[in-house]
């Protein structure tokens, strides 16, 4: 064993200790996988978050070429390492910090193993993974269950090719597919487990069709307002999956086909004009509800087709706009000098009335955390609900 290999092995051991200490890692089998899978082969280069001027986030490239010891240590940190920005920029493409939106990464190892523990696998469990990313989580599953039981699909061709190469280098040979994971991988179905490391607004019917009855689906449910909840659903005999949200503040990048089309300048100016002419009232709930994890989730359930933007016009106050581009409905929330907010609403859907009703129900129920919500889907209608003293309250997405 070279010094480099010995160092990497000791870093893996330390990572496993750390994950066990913080309560993410429990089973000896997953511990063995963490100790064996060389994460550094899956993150030969990545981006590190840094502060840019005026509070802008920049991403600095890190690779083994410049400072191998530092890179190796970072590779085994319990941190998410971003590997692609804006769907095309890789660390290889840049020498200086750059701006961009993360579009692929190696997920935080603590979260990866937490999700793997939730899968509750046996030695012969078959798994479909959506979002291969770097291939690190795929490799952990191959180590634990064997290559032949793992299928992983990645939408981005470049990301998929890098993952395939890294998995080969690390000695793993799962069934890899480059394509849209929302369709699943029917050729190898049914699976005992489906695990997604990208989030979805709506759980696709294909996943239900491809999960064995009694099997499990683990996926982060999101939307377009930045709310997230990690959901664990068990598959019934009737083609319906039902389950609950798990504790914690888990977020993943949204599955690419379910990302919203951005609000266009035209849509925004139509909304501005309609809102200028709209009547106003004092808001009961302010946009600062977004500072609350479950509050954001509730707002998103109530406004499933809305997007949010915060804009200051001509140096004025920061105004928060909610816009539903499908119907052109909009709401604006303007801060008042003495505190509180004024809301204006336009269009067919009174967006903020709906948001306030949902938040009122949630508050009356004691502002429960995300793990008090439940979920059920037949692939057509996805229902999320909360049991309250007045009975269940649910929100549907079709
Ligand atoms: C957080 S990363 C995956 C992390 C990965 N499990 C790891 O350990 O490296 C999410 C990945 O999901 C992929 N993705 C997004 N939408 C997808 C889709 N519809 N089907 C398959 N993969 C998708 C992204 O390209 C990205 O690589």
UniProtKB/TrEMBL annotation:
Superkingdom as given in the UniProt entry: Bacteria
Keywords: Cytoplasm, Methyltransferase, S-adenosyl-L-methionine, Transferase
Keyword match Methyltransferase: yes
Keyword Repeat: no
N-terminal signal peptide: none
GO biological process: methylation
Record field: transmembrane: none
Annotated compartments: Cytoplasm
InterPro entries the record matches: Methyltr_grasp, PCMT, SAM-dependent_MTases_sf
EC number(s) reported in the record: 2.1.1.77
Gene Ontology terms for molecular function: methyltransferase activity
Location (main, coarse): cytoplasm
Matching PANTHER family: PROTEIN-L-ISOASPARTATE O-METHYLTRANSFERASE, PROTEIN-L-ISOASPARTATE(D-ASPARTATE) O-METHYLTRANSFERASE
Sequence similarity: Belongs to the methyltransferase superfamily. L-isoaspartyl/D-aspartyl protein methyltransferase family.
Protein name: Protein-L-isoaspartate O-methyltransferase
Natural source organism: Actinomadura rugatobispora
Lineage: Bacteria, Bacillati, Actinomycetota, Actinomycetes, Streptosporangiales
Recorded name of the encoding gene: tgmC
